[in-house]
Structure formats: structure tokens, C-alpha cells
Amino acid sequence: MGGHHKKNLRAEKAKVKLKGAKLPKGLNVTKTDFKVRKIEIRAQLKESFLSASNGQRQLNLKEALSRLKHHNLKFRTDALRNVRDAVKAGQAGHLIGHLNELLQGIAAGALDIEQEVRRESFKTLDVLLEGLPVEAVVPFFHIIAAYLRCAMTHVQPSIQEDSLLLLDVLLQRVPSRLLAERSASTIISNFIDMISRTRHDTQHTNRLLTVRLGQGQGQQTTIKWRTKVLLRLQQILSTLLQQNCQSDSRARTAARVVHYDVTKVQHYNVLRPQLVDNRDLYSILGERVRKAENEQLLGYVEQLMPLLHDNWIEVRPQQQQLNQLLNGDAAGSLHVLLDIMAQLWQLVLQYEATQQDSTQELSAWMRQTYAANFVRIFLKDSNYPYQQMPLAVNQQNNSKKKAKMTPAAGGELCIAQNLTLVQLVCHFWPQPDDEQRDDYGCLLHYINQCLRQLSTLTTDEQLRLVAALRALLLDNGAALLQLQAHQMGTAMQNCIDAYVDQQYTTREGVATKVLNLLCLIVQRVELYNGYGGKEQFTKFLSYLPQLLLKPSVADVTLTAMSTLCRQQNIVFMTALVESATDVFANIERLLVTGGSSTEESRFENQKRILNLFYHARNCGNASKLQATLKKVERNSPESIASYLKSIFIYE
């Protein structure tokens, strides 16, 4: 090795040495007098960065999307939080161009094996859907719906359970129209599969309830799981009802279209309005695949009604038990079961109301198939009215904490359940006979109790009470007056007294619904006379003109007043003439709700009010009415004064 080193030294010495003069001092200093140009990052490059909190470095969008699929739990959760923080910071608009990949990555978290990732993905999706406009989400909604269906049908029970949280996000953030059109039928089928399975025997039903085995095995776990699933099913059905109501309102505002029928006398418009197809591309392309509306409703009823009956048979107290009070789980389950049945009936009745031939085949089939079992299971074999076991103090505190997460059980008196049951019995038995006399007597006795204790009812319970009163007093009134005339008269008197005394709350339009119900009843001569006529309705008819002194009046109420005048109802017309001075003074400020608000329609509504006095001009004090007319000529606009004068002189 020493010889080799010496050889290298000789080679180094043999090299040519390039020696030159040294540089002067100062020439080896870096020059700073050069010009620079500012580097600008373009906008699309800036937008791809996501802000990070807690002092962490920023992630660009591509890196965040890749981390959503990372094998490490912390990387996946951090990526979801970064996206959520970016949306909260106001960068949601910057993400619209990448929604396909972003929603794919976030929605895939619903199938993650780790519960923390699933919960973080739901939170991120909630914030993202809240920050984005609906038009931006519509083209990619099928991605979220596909992952929702996969989660609902997953083999892991924990993923199935968390899929309900994803559905809660969609119910809160996605419009009901979009959810109803795109995925309602599929989601309902998945709900049914979550609590039942197909049975292959020859029994009357084709589904069988399943028992959920998991943490805390036992009957209570199964009941709570079914209630959680059925509660979301109730919310999906409510979206269908909202969509149908919106469609009906649009159809009513459109011009009238009459289809030719050789068997009927028909009246046609001069011009047929141009039909505009407002459906989106998804609806047009999927039209052939989707079933008809009546087939869908038939499928819902066939699958759900037997399951709801079987569920209550398992949950309800056994007949041999001395204490027939319901526990908390049974009361909550009953609440959801009855609400779902009521929604099914509303869907069926809405569908039948839109049919031109006024068919009632679907409702008749429901009564023929399920009426006997329903009444036997929920009414005859049970201790009606239902009541819940009183809760201990510590249980009450725990129930208040969980109130937002569990369905309302209707309180210890189960008022909501009992009132919904009244409405359902009226749907199943619209034409009762002597066999149902005692059953309806029990229901009417309970309704009268609720009317006497109206001030203790909540707004939701009063809404259910009004729906039950409509089914009893209006829809089934003619038949029930033949069976329970005394109790029907008592219920009508209590209803009128409560309305005139203003015991109904004005929240959620409860008082308005009661007024509309009473107006519909007094317009039907057979019901008006059946309930007692003048003696029964004097208090209400005398109060009715006072509604014209308020800032607004409903169009339905004004129509009822016109009908009463044409029927020459002396009680109402006398009260109207006595209030004539105040009515004329308020007519310019009075608004008629439920119609158009143009200036032309406003004057037409004023003429409708003035037309009431054409029928009532011969009632009351004629000299007082003439004095009122002169006062109107001095103080009111010429259009109103001249029209009223022409009414009084017209023969």
C-alpha cells in the first residue's frame, strides 16, 4: 500500500501547475444591483391548497384525496378534518371542480372498518353539503346514494347501524324532491331488509322479522334497533309526502286540462295550455325502469303492514299480564309504527285524489286486507287508551338527555299514539255498522276527554287531535251520527266551544285547521242538520263575522261564508249585518290568504265580501244598514261604494 501512495504523489507532482495573478480586492463580492421580478402563483394553483388548523402544514387537494385512501387511520381522519376545515373557512366554492373525486373519497368512509373514520366522514359530508349549492350536488348525488345503499346492506352490523347517521345527513341537507325522486324506493327496500328477511313458506306474509344479535344481546336490543330503523323510514315517507304535496300545489296552480271522456258531460277550455316537461335528465332516462306509482305504493303496503303488525305483537304487553302499561321501548315503538301506517294511508289517499277517474281501488284493497287484523291487534286485544309506566327520577333525567336521539314516546299518557290510532281506525272503517258501535264509542269518549283538557296538550298533540276530529266529524260523520249521535254531538259542541274561546294554539296553523274543518261541516246540509243545526252552531256562526275584522282571512273561510249566505242561514246573516260597520271599515286592509295577491285579485276578494250583504240585506235593522251605506259612500273609495250601492238596489 505504501508504494501505491508514493506513485500517487509522483503523479500529482507531475501535473502542470497553472499559476496566475491574484484577483484584486473587492472583485469577489456578490453584486446586488441586479433587477428581480415577483413570482406570482396563478389562482387555480392557489385553490388547490386546503387550510389546516392546529399549526399543521397545508395540504393540497390532490394530497388530501390520496390520504383519504391511506391505510393509516390517522392519515384518513386528518384528511377528512382538513377538508372540513377548508369548507368552514369559506373555500367550498373552490372545490366544485373536484366534487367527483371528493365525494367519492368522503362517501367511501361510510364503509370504513374503523368507526372513527365513519363518523368523521359523516361530519365532513354534512359540512360540505351545507356549504355547497344544491345545483352543484345534484349531478353527483348518485355517488352518495350508492355508498348509502352499500352501507345499509353491509355484512358488518356496526356499519349498518352507522348508515342511519349518513341517512340523517341526507335528510337534513338534501332537498326532499331530490331524495324522493332518486333513492326513496331503493332506500325503503333496504330499510325493510335491515329488520326482516324473505320467508319461503306459505304463510300470509312474505317477510319475517329478524332478531339483531350484537352487543347487549336480547329482546331490548332488537326492539331499539327496529325502532331506530323505522324512525328513519318514517322520515323517508315524510319526504315522499312533501314531494307529493308540492306536486299537487303546482298542478292546482296550472291551467285546467280536461281529457275527453265519451261517457261524461264535460266542459273544455277555449285553448289547451302548453305542457312543459320540467323533469331533469335523470327522471327522463329512468322513466322506463321505475315502476308506476300505484305499483310502488302497493309494494310498500304489502311489505310494511304485516311487519308493523308483527312488530307490535312482539313488543306489546302480554294479555295475561295484570299490568297493561307500556314500558318506554314499547311506547316509542308504538309511536313510530302508528305514524308509518298513517303516512302510508296519506300516500294512498294522495294518489287516489290525483286520479281523474276518482278510483278508490287501492284504499278498498287495504281495508279488505288489513282492517280486521289492525283493529284486533291495536284496539280490541289491547288496553285502549294506552298509557306508559311512570319513570323514576333518574330515568326521567336520562330520558331528557336522550330526547334528541330517540323518538318522542308521547308522554306517560301516550296522547300522540292514542290520537293517531283514532285517525287510523276511521281510515280502516269509513262505514261502521252496529258491530263497531262500542269501539267507536270508546274512541269518541277519549276525544271528548282531550277536548276538555285542550290546554294541557302540546302543539304536535293538538295537530293530531285536529286530524282525528276531521276523520270523525267530517269524513265519517254521516255514518257515525247513526251509531253514536249523542257522543258525536258532544264532540262537536266541545270543538266549537274550544275554538270560540280561543283554546287552540296558533302555532303550526292549528286554529286555522279547526276553522277550516268547521267551515266544511257547516257547508254540508246533512252534517249541519245531523249535529243539531241552529242550536248546535249558533255560537260558531255568531262568531264567524268577527273574522272579517282581523288583518287576514282564509279563502276557505270566505267560501264557507258565501255558502252560508246562499243557504239563507239566518243566524250567520244576522250576525254579519250587526258587524257591517266594522267590516266596511276594515275591508281595505283585509287580506285574503290562499290566493293571488295582485291588485286585481284584491278587488275581486273585496267584492266577494260585499256580495255577502246581497243575501243578508233583509236581515237585521234595515235603517242601520242604510246609515252604514251612507257612511261607506263618504269614507270609502268610489269603487267599493258604488259596488255596494249597486248590490243594495239590485233585485
Write a structural description.
This protein is mainly alpha-helical and 651 residues long. It folds into four domains: 45-174, Leucine-rich Repeat Variant, CATH 1.25.10.10; 175-198 and 217-252 and 290-392 and 406-428; 429-532; 541-651. Helix content is 63%, strand content 2%. It has helices spanning 2-14, 43-46, 61-67, 73-88, 99-107, 115-131, 134-137, 141-152, 157-173, 176-182, 184-195, 219-253, 281-285, 293-315, 328-354, 361-380, 393-401, 415-428, 437-452, 459-475, 477-483, 485-500, 510-523, 525-530, 534-543, 555-566, 570-578, 580-586, 599-616, 622-635, 638-649; strands spanning 49-50, 59-60, 196-198, 207-209, 552-554, 591-593. Strands 1-2 form a two-stranded antiparallel ribbon. A two-stranded antiparallel sheet has the order 3-4. The model is unreliable at 43-49, 215-220, 251-255 and 401-408 (pLDDT under 50).
Low-confidence stretches: 43-49, 215-220, 251-255, 401-408
Based on the structure, what is the oligomeric state of the protein chains? Answer: single chain
Q: Number of helix segments?
A: 31
Give the number of DSSP strands.
6
Which band does the percent of strand residues land in? under 5%
Assign a percent range to the helix content.
Answer: 55-70%
| Spatial separation of the terminal alpha carbons | 140 Å
Q: Report the biggest beta sheet as strand number plus sense, adding barrel if it closes.
A: 2 strands, antiparallel
Rounded Rg: 36 Å
Q: What is the overall pLDDT average?
A: 80
Give the count of structural domains.
4
Structural class: mainly alpha
Based on Cα principal axes, name the global outline: extended
Q: Within the largest sheet, what's the order of strands?
A: 1-2
